[in-house]
Amino acid sequence: MQYLRANLSRKVGRLVDWSGGFWERRYSAEPVLDDEALVGRLRYVLAHGVKEGLVERSAEWPGLTCLPQLLGPARRLFQWFSWTRRWSKRGSENMAAGEGRFAEEIAEPVELVVEPLPCWKGLGEEERRRAVRGLVEAVESEARARDMPVMGA
Question: What is the pLDDT of residues 16-68, one digit of tens each?
């Protein structure tokens, strides 16, 4: 994790011209000991935006989310920029022209596939969707109970 965090912060820092601390605190690995804890982690992820009072509903969260894949047949494609391919082409005219790290010629599409939680593998698709909807409804209900205005994404 130290290697990942150090390299990620260095590369993102260069992209956004940011120096200094990137992570709020040191990494802490928290074990997920049972199915209830695992479902709790999923609930935490699905609550992003709602728990902070930025959006009223989980489906409104504009950030990265797996909710569309969990609720239906949605596909998510992302561009993976191959640094290995970039370095092998670093002398080419296109790389010299400034396209660099985000050049289309080094990009390849990658689909984000979301697998069911191990404890939900025995459930049918509709039962899993119902379980996800239950988590989302609980998160949104708790947010409404706080009776605070939504700031907006």
Answer: 888 777 777 788 888 899 999 999 999 999 999 999 999 999 999 998 889 99
Do 109 and 122 lie in one domain? The reply is no
Determine the Cα angle at 83 with ends 81 and 89, to 5°: 105
Contact 136, 67 (CB under 8 A): yes
In terms of residue numbers, what domain contains 130? 35-66+118-153
pLDDT tens sequence across 90-125: 665 555 444 566 777 788 899 988 889 999 999 999
Site of tokens 């290697």: 3
Distance CA 7, CA 108 (A): 21
Residue 101: phi and psi, rounded to 5, are -70, -20
Same domain, yes or no, for 90 and 108? yes
